């Protein structure tokens, strides 16, 4: 069978397995209290960790940027789409990360595809953590290299799998996107050096949140460009805007400009987005109170959840997973929370391994302590219901 009937059957299978995903239509900006389908829900699902996506100064910078630069960039960076404000943002990002150069990409997904496929050729070996973000895995596929995966956050296992052999590239999330835990970066840096491999750290969830002035997981672990030559960061999470970048040596960046196809063959970000990001980056660097507040919310949530007799995954970042097991339980729990006015999107396979469906609770600096307390109260009543439905 093929054609529409086949698609329909496959969709029915997803529904039956509680894996069907649907989008929600927001009627307002990204902020803790969001209007969805005529209701106001308190959201613990976004990656706007510092609460900058709807910051008035960032909104104003976008408006002023559009007045000055127009809306569309009109072209790829290498043709005529690379404006002065893109250049200025790249210089800001190089300064922020303490690296010689930074290169803007349109999205983090594209940055990972571009950097991995530019540096890895057919038949070369790449190693990746089992729980790496999909874009890192897809970059390996596109490169036609030989992808090997090692057990999650297990540097000793990687060393023994490598067994003294060389490798081309080792890639890892800095902070894992669905678990909130950190990669063992110092050990990975030593292994990469010994294997003669490039080390790529995707710090989508660490930048802005960890390290001095929000410099991210590498700063938190005291690692420099010699130990981690390739840093990828996204602008749509803690920085509250859109886009991504890779930071490293001058030769690395020039190589990406020449060879990264997802850089070359795509339209540059709207320059006004770059202008807004310059402002949000400056706020993220300067306003340490956002990180301090976030840490106090994390501590409050973890203490409260453990008082309820529930267990969160081991995480000190704003990503706090409540692992529930089956997709059915995760969906039931999310529905029960929603009845209490709380939005936490259930995360199911294939985004996470089978048997580890979860509520991925994420905190932002825009949440208040009272909001965390509302979540805790809702978790208490929802868990009674969802655990009831699990035994049913
Ligand atoms: C979100 C994310 C990406 C993709 O970034 P986008 O800019 O959203 O395309 C890449 N890696 C990780 C770890 C992410 O969480």
The unreliable regions are none
CATH class of the largest domain: Alpha Beta
Q: What is the overall pLDDT average?
A: 95
Main sheet overview: 7 strands, mixed
Q: If you compute it from the alpha carbons, what radius of gyration comes out, rounded to the nearest whole angstrom?
A: 21 Å
Beta strand %? 15-25%
Shape: globular
Can you characterise this structure?
- By secondary structure, the protein is an alpha/beta fold.
- The protein folds into 2 domains: 18-50 and 288-389, Aspartate Aminotransferase, domain 1 (Alpha-Beta Complex), CATH 3.90.1150; 56-286, Type I PLP-dependent aspartate aminotransferase-like (Major domain) (Aspartate Aminotransferase, domain 2), CATH 3.40.640.
- The chain is built from 15 helices and 13 strands.
- The strands form 3 sheets. A 7-stranded mixed beta sheet has the order 3-9-8-7-6-4-5, with helices on both faces. Strands 1-2-11 form a 3-stranded mixed beta sheet. The chain has a 3-stranded antiparallel beta sheet with strand order 10-13-12, with helices on one face.
- Strand 7 (198-202), helix 9 and strand 8 form a beta-alpha-beta unit.
- Helix 5 (108-119) packs parallel to helix 6, helix 13 runs parallel beside helix 15 and helix 14 (327-339) packs across helix 15.
- The two termini are 36 Å apart.
- The model has no long low-confidence stretch (mean pLDDT 95).
- Residues 107-109, 112, 133, 135, 173, 177, 202, 204-205, 234, 236, 244 line the site of pyridoxal-5'-phosphate.
């Amino acid at each position: 069978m093929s054609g529409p009937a086949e698609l329909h059957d496959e969709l029915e299978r997803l529904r039956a397995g509680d894996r069907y995903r649907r989008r929600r239509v927001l009627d307002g900006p990204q902020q803790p209290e969001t209007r969805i389908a005529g209701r106001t829900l308190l959201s613990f699902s976004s990656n706007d960790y510092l609460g900058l996506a709807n910051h008035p100064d960032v909104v104003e910078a976008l408006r002023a940027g559009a007045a000055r630069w127009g809306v569309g960039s009109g072209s790829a960076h290498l043709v005529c789409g690379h404006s002065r404000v893109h250049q200025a943002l790249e210089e800001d990002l190089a300064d922020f990360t303490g690296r010689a150069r930074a290169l803007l990409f349109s999205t983090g997904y594209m940055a990972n595809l571009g950097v991995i496929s530019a540096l890895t050729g057919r038949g070369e070996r790449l190693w990746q953590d089992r729980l790496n973000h999909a874009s890192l895995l897809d970059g390996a596929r596109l490169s036609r290299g030989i992808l090997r995966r090692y057990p999650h956050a297990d540097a000793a296992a990687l060393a023994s799998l490598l067994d003294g052999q060389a490798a081309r590239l080792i890639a890892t999330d800095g902070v894992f996107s669905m678990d909130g835990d950190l990669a063992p970066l110092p050990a990975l840096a030593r292994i990469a050096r010994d294997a003669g491999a490039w080390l790529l750290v995707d710090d989508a969830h660490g930048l802005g949140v960890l390290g001095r002035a929000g410099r991210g997981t590498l700063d938190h672990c005291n690692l420099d460009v010699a130990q981690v030559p390739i840093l990828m960061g996204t602008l749509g999470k803690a920085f509250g805007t859109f886009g991504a970048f890779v930071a490293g040596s001058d030769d690395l960046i020039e190589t990406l400009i020449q060879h990264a196809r997802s850089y070359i063959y795509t339209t540059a970000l709207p320059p006004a987005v770059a202008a807004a990001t310059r402002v949000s980056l400056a706020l993220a660097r300067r306003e340490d109170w956002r990180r301090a507040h976030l840490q106090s919310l994390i501590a409050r949530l973890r203490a409260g959840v453990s008082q309820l007799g529930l267990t969160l995954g081991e995480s000190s970042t704003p990503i706090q997973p409540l692992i529930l097991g089956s997709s059915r339980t995760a969906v039931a729990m999310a529905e029960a929370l929603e009845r209490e006015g709380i939005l936490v999107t259930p995360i199911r396979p294939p985004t996470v391994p089978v048997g580890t469906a979860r509520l991925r609770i994420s905190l932002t600096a825009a949440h208040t302590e009272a909001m965390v307390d509302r979540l805790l109260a809702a978790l208490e009543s929802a868990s009674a219901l969802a655990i009831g439905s699990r035994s049913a």
